[in-house]
């Protein structure tokens, strides 16, 4: 389990941003947190980051109770979490490459490893040709790819994304979503807050729906593509055996009917024979 909320509540003054929320996120899952504005989506993400403290309940991250994570340990916790928020924190004075390198510098990775790791991540987000450009030279969609690259470079175990496509057109949104899917298929857990219905409808994933701080729906676990294939083939086998059973039943029924018909025919033949016999006798009598 990567994330576990047990009866978590969080209020701001008299606003109950999250009410008694319980859910679990398994490693490798892709989860949408959805619901109208003010429903508590960002609150959930900030609780995972320990930017907010819950009033009650328990939050586990990677098996660790967040209430036991001391403030001096917080940077280590956050190094395991890649964050992509809508207010993209891209450094305007730095090139794309330098923006991504910052994460490695913070982690204390040796500089001779930087180029290879940055190139790899830029390729993943489709920015390999933009490494030496500055943010002002990039489009909104490209900037969001920089944010994603910055989140990924630290090799986190989870990606938290808050309306990552909020300001983008649909085509760009789909392209960014496909990268998130690829990242997820490479094994990273993704939790994405969004109220964009088109995204939720187009990318079928598990969905937790919030309303006024309450979980009103939890779509359950979405199986990985491989599992889906296994399920499909199981279904096929089930269907085939069902078909076979049906065919067998039909055959049985036909056989029975044929037998019944034959019996009737036999009976009729006997009757006929008897009748003929009678007639014969009568004729003879006459
Ligand atoms: N730091 C804060 N101080 C005071 N109130 C807050 C704070 N953070 C969130 N809230 C309140 O808690 C409620 C839930 O906010 P949250 O940001 O989680 O909503 P959201 O679902 O992310 O909405 P949106 O779709 O608009 O981003 C809102 O009523 C909000 O005003
Ligand atoms: Mg929000």
What does this structure look like?
47% of the residues lie in helices and 21% in strands. The protein is built from 8 helices and 10 strands. The protein starts with a strand and ends with a helix. Adenosine-5'-triphosphate binds next to strand 2 and helix 1.
How far do the termini sit from each other? Answer: 101 Å
The fraction of residues in strands falls at 15-25%
Low-confidence stretches: none
Tally of separate domains: 2
CATH class wording of the largest domain: Alpha Beta
The molecules bound to the chains, other than polymers, are:
adenosine-5'-triphosphate, magnesium ion
Relevant CATH superfamily of the largest domain: P-loop containing nucleotide triphosphate hydrolases
Q: What is the rounded Rg? A: 33 Å
Decide which structural class fits the backbone: alpha/beta
| DSSP, total strands | 10
- Describe the biggest sheet? 6 strands, mixed
The CATH topology annotation of the largest domain reads as Rossmann fold
> Any guess at the CATH architecture of the largest domain?
3-Layer(aba) Sandwich
Provide a count of the helices: 8
- The overall pLDDT average reads 86
Features:
286 residues, alpha/beta, Rossmann fold, 6-stranded mixed sheet, 8 helices, 21% strand, elongated, binds adenosine-5'-triphosphate, binds magnesium ion
Architecture blueprint of SSEs:
Layout: E1 3-12, E2 15-25, E3 30-34, H1 41-48, E4 56-61, E5 64-65, H2 74-78, E6 81-85, H3 96-107, H4 111-124, H5 140-152, E7 158-162, H6 170-185, E8 189-193, H7 197-202, E9 206-211, E10 214-218, H8 225-285
Parallel strand pairs: 3-8, 3-9, 6-7, 7-8
Antiparallel strand pairs: 1-2, 1-4, 4-5, 9-10
Helix pairs in contact: 3-4, 3-5, 4-5
Residues 12, 15, 17, 35, 37-43, 195 line the site of adenosine-5'-triphosphate.
